[in-house]
């Protein structure tokens, strides 16, 4: 279950093993692993300083946190360390280490000394990436190899749904989880029932409507190359021969061909798809790309295009608009001067 020290503390109280397992299940497995890693760092630090990690006085904990500040760690990192210590430390007079008055005052001071800054400028250009997805090697979709078909599908799904990678990773091709409407006009995606989301009750079904066909100059209609329903249906049809599991996204490479991919690999796919969309247009991909950026960029553009904040929070599984405003909202409404001028000229020429 992770967090062995916490297990020992609960076992000392005399709780049965099943009760301890239920208590430790209150945290997601990824959170337990993260806390266990941070606690081991604190244990090693205490060992070097000659202290007992799970029974040390509050001054030792504060000294460790101050050491993190001196090493220029971010405030969010310090909070994770404190949460791990609070989970494994015996506490003080019936309260956890994080509830001690001195620790509370210390964290308030740390927050002032380490202000949290967040860039409001998007890390990558959504228009550039979407344009790249309509070009080689992503199109034509029917002739694309499994790698580029997978990259395009997962990126379009991430942008359309604004879900976490873990939520997308839990999607299944089982008929009870993936349902296409007649004519592939829409698709309803549900996670595997065994999946436990990071926030309990936050993983809602993904309902995607197909893009209408585009009217070309000849008067004929052609499929929209950015339609996620089209990409998903093509991916599922092409992956039938490889599939060894009901998980939606599978590995195409040996020796794991046909087996489910991990959440980390799915994140790599999203980043690779964004970078490849740039390089396919002979553009330099931005540095520091990360998969989670799709949530902020997709929801910010939706807000800019007139989608209500309530609908955005419901789609992204945010309980409060404050989460979106504080951590995800980006400024996509202010193009640079050159683009504004060129956009005006292009629109004037097309009108003529």
From TrEMBL:
InterPro entries referenced in this protein's UniProt entry, alphabetically: DNA_brk_join_enz, Integrase-like_cat_sf, Integrase_recombinase_N
Superkingdom of the source species: Eukaryota
UniProt keyword annotation of DNA-binding present: yes
GO molecular function: DNA binding
Keywords of the record: DNA recombination, DNA-binding
Keyword DNA-binding in annotation: yes
Membrane-spanning intervals of the chain: none
GO biological process, one term: DNA integration
Name of the protein in its database record: Tyr recombinase domain-containing protein
Naturally occurring in which organism (per UniProt): Champsocephalus gunnari
